[in-house]
Amino acid sequence: SVKTERHEPRKFPDGFRFGTATASYQVEGAWNVDGKSENIWDRLSHTQPCVINNCDTGDVADNSYYNYKRDVEMMRELGLDFYRFSISWSRLLPTSFPDHINREAVHYYNNLIDEMLKYNIEPMVTLYHWDLPQKLQDLGGWTNPNMVDWFTDYCRNIFELFGDRVKTWFTINEPREVCYQGYAGMSKAPNLNISGYAEYHCAKNLLVSHAKVYHMYKNEFNKEGDTIGIVLSSRWCEPESEKHVQAAEDIFQFELGQYAHPIFSNTGDWPAVMKNNIASKSAAQGFYRSRLPEFTPDEVEMVKGSSDFFGLNHYTTNLVYRNESVEGYHASPSYYDDANAILYQPADWVGSYPGTTWLKVVPWGFHKLLNKIREEYNNPPVYITENGCATNPGIMDDSRVSYYMSYLAAMLDAIEEGSDVQLYTAWSLMDNFEWYFGYDDRFGLYEVDYSVEERTRTPRKSAYFYKDLLRTRTLDVHYEPDMSIPMEI
Ligand code: GBH
Question: SUPFAM superfamilies this protein is in (predicted)?
Answer without folding.
Answer: (Trans)glycosidases
